[in-house]
Write a structure and sequence with these properties.
Two copies of one chain form a homodimer. The first copy, chain A, is an alpha/beta fold and 266 residues long. The first copy, chain A, is built from eleven helices and ten strands.
């Protein structure tokens, strides 16, 4: 999906919500285990319940990989089931040398036809550019992540700024706003302002809002630009909003609440 | 496999060779496509041909992932086929927040029972420590990689040193020499000396020797310690040494040549 189509969907739905399908098999409702593929049945119900409220689904590949072949099969079926007007993200955080990065691009753009994949920047330019060669496909590169461990390296000084700032600056120069986004787990005003100075026009994928404590109002008011250009991810706060037979209804309610708040910032 | 067993294997075989199974389906001999699983048949023949010369196999997961379910199946069969006295590495370069890193640890230590997995450090402590909780299993964390892109961030100043030096120092403090190794694609004497000052006792996984131009003698003389503690990886230089019906014989010859050179440094 290209940039303009994504922006159009965001404006149409008045939503910049991304639902994270971190489908932990140990947390899905018991009654689904009577079906042949409980993970897919869960995702199917979640997608049906949330598709009117969200503009993107982010599949956290680790939860599928851990289940082996069965998990990759559930992942493939889930990706297939997502309506084509909704942006898809393989949250796989791959990063390797050129010839290997090409194989990962093939994996997530071709074998599994996602719109985008998250990419780790540590190995530098030749680990990222193979993801930038596919029209309408995106590399979503880690900038500042929302976890405690972001302090270990990302928030350490590097030259005149911090490492993650150097990453944003450098990676932005390798591609364009049409094929590169950044993961920024920032929910503080000052940080978001600094990030928007470095990458004013890029799409930002922002986790850590909601259940993890981030403040949606601050994020929206500080990080939105004239094309909106943010996707705010919520995973557990939506997909595990309920745990009983009505889990899909609970997920729909949670997603609707997030979308309604988002609409107020348009 | 624990540290002592690995050292014992290295001393017994007088080899610190790791064979990289970067099995690119477009490069394997044509006659194998008559079989049901050409990638596995190729790997099986390579393992039979090289197992007496090598102490480790490194499976580059990207080449398998790109083939979807079929690829993961070939990977699982290959891992199963590797003799139990040979150390196995999932070269997967994963790295994510704690609950997701746990899923990756499950993937590569349990669902697919590797001895070790390569891990990217950018997301910090909680992205690495979940891999350090399994007795006899290892996280092999990226320090300095051998590609051009290592200059973009790894070789940039960070505090008093370079980023990769800070990574080695910091990550070493999270685990021990019994559960942490480092990828260092260094083949220059000065660099290896600096690395050995920071992590004198850790195992180092060293790619970039041989076909990629690194000098084995320098690596061996500079990076070996009293327990040897290096694994030198060769992928294409062995597995694609030949391309015809005799590909396995050619691989055996190439592996034997590497091992013989290694023996001279013991």
């Amino acid at each position: 999906m290209n940039r303009q189509s994504l922006i159009d969907q965001i404006r149409k739905k008045k939503s910049f919500l991304c639902v994270g399908l971190d489908t932990d098999i140990t947390k899905i409702p018991q009654h689904l285990f009577a079906t042949e593929d409980p993970v897919f049945e869960f995702n199917k119900a979640i997608i049906d319940a949330t598709k009117d409220h969200t503009v993107a689904y982010k599949i956290n590949t680790a939860f599928y990989e851990a289940q082996g072949l069965k998990g990759w099969s559930s992942m493939g079926k889930t990706l297939d089931y997502i309506p084509k007007n909704i942006f898809t993200i393989a949250d796989a955080k791959r990063g390797d040398i050129g010839n290997t990065a090409e194989q990962y691009a093939k994996t997530f753009f071709d074998t599994y036809p996602y719109d985008s994949v998250t990419v780790a920047p540590y190995m530098g330019k030749d680990s990222v550019t193979p993801f930038l060669q596919f029209p309408g496909k995106w590399a979503i590169v880690l900038g500042l992540t929302s976890n405690e461990g972001s302090r270990d390296f990302q928030l350490q000084p590097s030259g005149d700024g911090l490492l993650y700032e150097k990453v944003l600056q450098t990676v932005a120069s390798w591609g364009s706003v049409d094929n590169t986004m950044f993961v920024v787990g920032a929910t503080q005003k000052e940080q978001l302002e600094r990030i928007r100075k470095i990458v004013p026009d890029h799409f930002l994928l922002i986790p850590g809002v909601g259940a993890q404590g981030g403040d949606m109002a601050t994020v929206a008011r500080t990080a939105m630009n004239k094309d909106v250009s943010i996707l705010v991810n919520v995973s557990r706060g939506i997909i595990f909003a309920g745990s009983g037979n009505d889990f899909a209804d609970q997920a729909a309610k949670a997603a609707a609440t997030y979308r309604e708040e988002m609409e107020s910032y348009f």
